[in-house]
Write the structure tokens for this entry.
Amino acid sequence: MINCYKILEIPDFSDENTIQKSFRMLAKKYHPDVSGLPNAEEKFKLIAKAYQTLSHPNSKKMHDDRLRRPYESFAEIQQKREAARQKDLEARQRRRAELLKIRDLKFYEAEEAYLPYQSRIAGYVLVMIVGGIIAFKYWYVNLLDENIYMPIAFGLCISGVGVAGCINVWYKKLRFDFLKHQTSQNFERKSMQFGLYVALVFALIFGVSNKFRKEFQLKYNGVYDYAHFREDTFNKSDAKVLYKTDEGYEVKKERTLTSEHIVDYKNGRVLIKYSRSYPEIMELVVRKK
């Protein structure tokens, strides 16, 4: 390998100023127009080529890497290059994250100035209540024999929009506090707490409303009738009962019989009370004390 530093008569890995000074001095010495040496022209061409290699950063880097190989392995050189690239990439990613953070903060501040956080939450809560009323009306208290699934689905969709909006507004607020104060642990913890609260609220609403729905239907829309035992469960405590409504709706239920229930074992039937609108809502009638 040709060592360009030796051609310019300077130490290996010299800086740019040293390279330029040496080139100027040697160019004056070996220039064919001023030098009387027999090999001046060849020497000048070699000096010019060496200077051209070392005067450009990329070619100088490649030359220096090849020159270091006796002292450093190729793997070490590649490792250093990779570390430098990785460091540069991380710096760019940090800068991009900072720019995105600034953009998000400005966007949220503008949104907050236009419509405050509390007003947006109140609006979405109102949407959720309206959808809930629609679904509640047809699912809970509707006493007519009609197709109620489409109105219920419509009401649930409206409520879903309200719930999603509340979650979105709350998440933006939480993210704004996180970006402003850099509390990542609180951000993750509060996000998990919020998700848990939402799940508990929905489970509580469903459980309570389902219980009161049954009581409402049986109290205001209930009728008494006899349900027959299935033959394979006759005279058993865990009996499977079968009953038909006046409209021909057939229902099968499994219930546990006790001495408190009004049971006609002779004819294989038990007294029940079921809802006219929702025949699947039923209960076994208990003897009055």
User: Anything to note?
Assistant: The radius of gyration is 43 Å.
